[in-house]
């Protein structure tokens, strides 16, 4: 299969003009790689550049502009690398498309310069960050020379430019997959597909589903595709795509000859070359959803030939991620859990499903076309109060006001924490699992989680 690993000679590159739209982590990483590889490049951001990113652009002598886009100049580019945050309906993106200028994502750009290195890429609506972090932890523990890149860790392009590795473990979003052309992971993992980011996909679920399956589109017979056979959406649509790689399903509902399954509290992993078992009671990550994540990570590690004793040890020693079901503190018998990374309804569903104490639930933020009815049964069963934390909470109020005894509106993390604490009793849990994006009140989900934790520790 053709792969543009080398983009022209150094002399040819010097005559090519690369524009990077967006000066966040992925944009700056893409620019550093472009500069290192000999291209003339411009970083253009409609907003204000953050000081650390600005310093890096100066350090690498990269041209930049902020507060506007120089459209006339940008439209002379040979290649445009687009930040995943910029939607397709953006007027400048439309003009770039109309001119026939090549437009790619940062992961596609990085891919073109990795030589013979290989990628394990993980996507999905829920669980991808945990699965990526666990896969990386297993690989490192087993002695693999690898880097953690993508939505978690450094941008892929930055890593390739400054510290290339034989292996990359990458978390990739649907937005990044939308603009790939040849990106080809040796191991692709699709954790699940649930309704998310529908605002970016014209509120058509099928568009989002197609985006997720793009992770497989360039794979060949020597590659592997790990997916969840228990996920209804994945299984309803899997036959619509031409899959040339080796399929490796995971399941809790049936035994599999190839793949991973859990039966009688034992995880069973079977690939062509290896079989091994491990008790789920030895998993560092608890909860049913994390059993799926652990199966996917363990299977990915097994299929690239890592030793099973090292896989077992790493699964036992893994530490949970910040902002993902992170226990912050227990204050006067009330447990506070930070699940700020739950930016969609299904993530919140998994969080609630794992709760075994009465819950005061903190919800809210930027709604992405959420269907809160999915939470209704769990809310009725487990939630004694809802604290809304957002600029516009009407949709949450309408969804739950007839089913929860108490609902309050708040406009900051500190206010939400204080309200939740007042509504709680000893033995309760205050769960921040917003089901929404964070951009109305916070910079990002990390900022939201950090402010939540600070407010809890100040009680």
Automatic annotation (TrEMBL):
Please write the reaction equations for the catalytic activity of this protein: UDP-N-acetyl-alpha-D-muramoyl-L-alanine + D-glutamate + ATP = UDP-N-acetyl-alpha-D-muramoyl-L-alanyl-D-glutamate + ADP + phosphate + H(+)
Q: What is its main location?
A: cytoplasm
Going by the UniProt record, its keywords in alphabetical order are: ATP-binding, Cell cycle, Cell division, Cell shape, Cell wall biogenesis/degradation, Cytoplasm, Ligase, Nucleotide-binding, Peptidoglycan synthesis
Q: What class of enzyme is it?
A: ligase
Pfam families the record matches = Mur_ligase_C, Mur_ligase_M, MurD-like_N
Record keyword ATP-binding present: yes
Q: Domain Mur ligase C-terminal, which positions?
A: 323-436
Start and end residues of each Mur ligase central domain? 122-300
The pathway this protein participates in, as annotated, is:
Cell wall biogenesis; peptidoglycan biosynthesis
Q: Is DNA-binding included in the keywords of this UniProt record?
A: no
Q: Where in the cell is it found?
A: Cytoplasm
Annotated residues for binding of ATP: 124-130
Name one molecular function that GO assigns to this entry. Answer: UDP-N-acetylmuramoylalanine-D-glutamate ligase activity
* EC number from the UniProt entry: 6.3.2.9
Q: What does this protein do?
A: Cell wall formation. Catalyzes the addition of glutamate to the nucleotide precursor UDP-N-acetylmuramoyl-L-alanine (UMA).
Family from the record: Belongs to the MurCDEF family.
Name by which UniProt lists this protein: UDP-N-acetylmuramoylalanine--D-glutamate ligase
Question: In which organism is this protein found?
Answer: Flavihumibacter fluminis
């Amino acid at each position: 299969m053709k792969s543009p690993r080398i983009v022209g000679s150094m002399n040819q590159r010097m005559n090519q003009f690369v524009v990077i739209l967006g000066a966040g982590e992925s944009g700056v990483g893409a620019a550093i790689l472009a500069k290192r590889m000999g291209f003339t490049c411009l970083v253009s951001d409609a907003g204000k550049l953050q000081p650390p990113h600005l310093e890096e652009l100066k350090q690498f002598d990269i041209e930049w502009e902020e507060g506007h886009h120089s459209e006339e100049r940008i439209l002379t580019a040979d290649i445009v690398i687009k930040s995943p945050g910029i939607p397709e309906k953006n007027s400048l993106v439309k003009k770039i498309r109309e001119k026939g200028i090549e437009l790619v994502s940062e992961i596609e750009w990085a891919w073109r310069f990795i030589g013979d290195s290989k990628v394990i890429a993980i996507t999905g609506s829920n669980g991808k960050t945990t699965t990526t972090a666990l896969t990386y932890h297993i690989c490192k523990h087993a002695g693999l020379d690898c880097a953690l890149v993508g939505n978690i860790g450094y941008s892929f392009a930055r890593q390739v430019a400054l510290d290339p590795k034989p292996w990359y473990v990458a978390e990739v979003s649907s937005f990044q997959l939308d603009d790939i052309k040849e990106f080809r992971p040796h191991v692709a993992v699709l954790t699940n597909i649930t309704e998310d980011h529908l605002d970016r996909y014209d509120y058509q679920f099928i568009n989002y589903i197609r985006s997720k399956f793009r992770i497989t589109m360039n794979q060949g017979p020597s590659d592997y595709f790990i997916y969840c056979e228990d996920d209804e959406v994945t299984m309803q649509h899997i036959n619509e795509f031409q899959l040339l790689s080796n399929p490796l399903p995971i399941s809790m509902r049936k035994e599999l000859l190839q793949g991973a399954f859990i039966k009688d509290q034992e995880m069973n992993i079977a690939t062509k070359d290896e079989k091994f078992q491990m008790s789920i009671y030895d998993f560092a990550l608890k909860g049913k959803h994390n059993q799926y994540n652990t199966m996917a990570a363990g299977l990915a590690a097994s299929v690239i030939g890592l030793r099973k004793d090292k896989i077992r040890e790493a699964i036992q020693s893994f530490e949970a991620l910040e902002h993902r079901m992170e226990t912050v503190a227990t204050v006067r018998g009330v447990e506070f859990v930070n699940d700020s990374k739950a930016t969609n309804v299904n993530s919140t569903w998994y969080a609630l499903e794992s709760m075994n104490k009465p819950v005061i639930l903190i919800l809210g933020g930027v709604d992405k076309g959420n269907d809160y009815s999915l939470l209704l049964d769990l809310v009725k069963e487990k939630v004694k109060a809802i604290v809304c934390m957002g600029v516009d909470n009407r949709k949450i109020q309408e969804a739950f006001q007839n089913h929860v005894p108490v609902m309050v509106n708040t406009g900051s993390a500190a206010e939400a924490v204080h309200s939740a604490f007042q509504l709680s009793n000893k033995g309760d849990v205050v769960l921040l699992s917003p089901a929404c994006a964070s951009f109305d009140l916070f910079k990002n989900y990390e900022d939201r989680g950090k402010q939540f934790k600070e407010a809890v520790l100040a009680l």
